[in-house]
Amino acid sequence: MHDLAVLRAQVRRRIARHRRLLAAALAAAATAVALSVVSPSPPRQATVVVAAHDLDAGELLSSGDIAVVQVPVSVVPSHAVTAADDLVGRALAAPVRAGEIMTDRRLLGRSLLTGYAADAVAAPVRIADVDVLGLLRVGDRIDVYAAVGGGSADPTSPAALVVAGARIISLRGPTESGQEGGLVVLAVDQRSAAALAEAGAIAPLSVALRR
Predict the structure, then answer these.
(1) Is the pTM value of this prediction over 0.90?
(2) Domain range for 161
(3) Is 59 part of a structural domain of the chain?
(4) Residue 133 and residue 181: Cα distance in Å, rounded?
(5) What's the mean pLDDT in 38-55?
(6) The Cα angle at residue 78 between residues 50 and 117, in degrees rounded to 5
(7) Using CA atoms, how far apart are residues 62 and 89, in angstroms rounded to an integer?
(8) 20 to 30 Å CA-CA from 167: which of 17, 85, 137, 195?
(9) Strand pairing partners for 171?
(10) For residue 138, is it within any domain?
(11) Which of 88-92, 98-102, 120-124, 151-155 has the highest mean pLDDT?
């Protein structure tokens, strides 16, 4: 009888120990389930191209100017660029800050006149003053004036307005050919292009920025 009582006690202890282990396992499982419900799942990611550093309008993009990163889908703007190869060699239509997601709106069309009126032409205007050229950016609107009368050396000579509110679509600085200043390429109609060509042939041209 004594041996039977000892055996029964051992069985009861084992059953109690297994119950405690089972209860602990069930509690751990319940905690894991609760945490999975409470903790939000990580946001879905998307691949986009961003500016690797601050970029100016008119810059031709190289591989060092851009980077491919993963960002939450919720912050991706419409028409975001997703492949770096789509940007290399393209020109920026506006300044871009480092880390900014690149979109089609940040790029000039593959043709300078993409997006302009059907009758628009690209008219180059040579500006001799390099300091003035440095103030201009692609996308700016400018008025173009021609010095008349006594010429640019005469401070009292009047200046005639040739074209008003022309949009800059490209800029080219001084070249190695020895020519002074640089070129400002404007999107204008054919009549304005003819007026610019005529004025540039007979007088120095200057520009004024518009809002």
Answers:
(1) no
(2) 121-209
(3) yes
(4) 8
(5) 84
(6) 100
(7) 6
(8) 85
(9) 184
(10) yes
(11) 98-102
Task: List for the chain the helix, strand, coil content (%; round to 5).
Answer: 30, 30, 40
pLDDT of 53 reads 92
Q: Length of the chain, please? A: 211
Q: pLDDT tens digits, residue range 5-18?
A: 555 555 466 655 65
Residue 31 in any domain: the answer is no
| Number of domains observed in the structure of the chain | 2
Burial class (CB in 10 A: 0-12, 13-18, 19+), 138: buried
Among the ranges given (33-37, 49-53, 100-104, 204-208), the one the predictor scored with the smallest mean pLDDT:
33-37
Residues 98 and 172 in one domain: no
Give the helix/strand (H/E) hosting 27: helix 2-38
What are the strands, taking DSSP E only, across 66-153? Answer: 66-72, 121-127, 141-147
Please report, for the domain that includes residue 64, its CATH number.
Answer: 3.90.1210.10
Most confidently modeled of 92-96, 97-101, 114-118?
Answer: 97-101
